[in-house]
Design brief:
By secondary structure, the protein is mainly beta. The chain has 1 helix and 18 strands. The strands form 5 sheets. A 5-stranded mixed sheet has the order 2-8-7-4-5, with no helix packed on it.
Length: 220
């Protein structure tokens, strides 16, 4: 009796293991039929470079599945509480690049299908070191020079999407041009008055520009 009982006990574990394997074998073929989620960024720079504060468009598709819901979220643990961007169906979702010191950012995607299936994916971006500016400003509006002495180029301000301002005057990317060099000649960081009159100088930075009217009066 004792030996028979022990033998039955020894055979019991393999039975439950076999049952568990059959259960997972039933589930796994269904999951294997799901194609990978396709994630594509539509408006990023070369080598997937993005900028803090930039709004990028993420196109989502899931071949063979009907997306019912889901979300996108940046993997930035040091910036807790970042919002999730909800997904309802295939299409395009706008997301904002967070301001972080990371060099590489991952955007995680989690979706659910109409038949109860679920899937995850992600896409990586490289964060640019510089900020994105919406416009350039010259706070004084116009420039009036009352003598013929050389002067520093105007102070130019860059304004970001969030409204933050930064003095760009010392940036090597900031360039100036004069509409009429016979009135005012520019060789940054200096301006050299040539003769009384009016002209317009233009500041250029990363594809942005601001025009500054200049009046040069003859010195007394």
């Amino acid at each position: 009796m004792t030996c028979q009982y022990t033998l039955n006990q020894a055979r019991t574990p393999p039975f439950f293991i076999l049952l568990a394997l059959c259960f997972f074998a039933f589930l796994m073929p269904r999951q294997g039929l799901a194609a990978p989620i396709e994630v594509k960024a539509l408006n990023v720079g070369e080598n997937d470079i993005v900028h803090p504060g930039q709004t990028i468009q993420i196109e989502l598709a899931w071949p063979g599945e009907t997306i019912t819901e889901g979300y996108l979220k940046w993997d930035t643990k040091e910036l807790g509480g970042l919002e999730k961007y909800p997904v309802q169906g295939a299409g395009i979702v706008d997301v904002v690049v967070p301001d972080t010191n990371k060099v590489v950012l991952s955007l995680h995607v989690k979706l659910r299908g109409a038949e109860g299936s679920s899937g995850i994916s992600y896409i990586k971006f490289h964060l640019a070191n510089d900020e994105v500016y919406q416009r350039l400003e010259y706070p004084e509006g116009a420039l009036i020079l009352n003598d013929m002495s050389p002067a520093l180029v105007p102070r130019i301000i860059g304004v970001t999407q969030s409204g933050q301002e930064k003095d760009l005057s010392k940036s090597p990317e900031l360039q100036f041009s004069s509409e009429n060099p016979d009135v005012l000649f520019i060789d940054p960081p200096m301006m050299y008055p040539q003769s009384p009159g009016t002209t317009t100088i233009t500041a250029h930075y990363q594809g942005l520009r601001v025009d500054i009217p200049v009046t040069l009066n003859e010195g007394r």
